[in-house]
Amino acid sequence: MTATEQDIWQTLIELDRQVKSMASANPKPNLLPLFNRLDELTRQLPRETAPELLHYLHKKSYEKARLSLEGRDAENAAGNCGHQ
Predict the structure, then answer these.
(1) N or C: which end of the chain has fewer CB within 10 A?
(2) pLDDT at residue 24 is higher than 70
């Protein structure tokens, strides 16, 4: 995993944590900075990045991107776009 992919993975973990806390959080967490960070990091990825990972990030399929980074891509269900 590259340094940028590591940063993306850590941001995805934090996003997942904050989303899971929303039901009981008061005030609700502001997720916009995390989404902006993911967009910024995605733009920094080199062209030779795994096409599946780029696809997931561009489509905002963040759970699928996290599973892909964790080497668990086989757990990703097929999406409406014809990709996993």
Answers:
(1) N
(2) yes
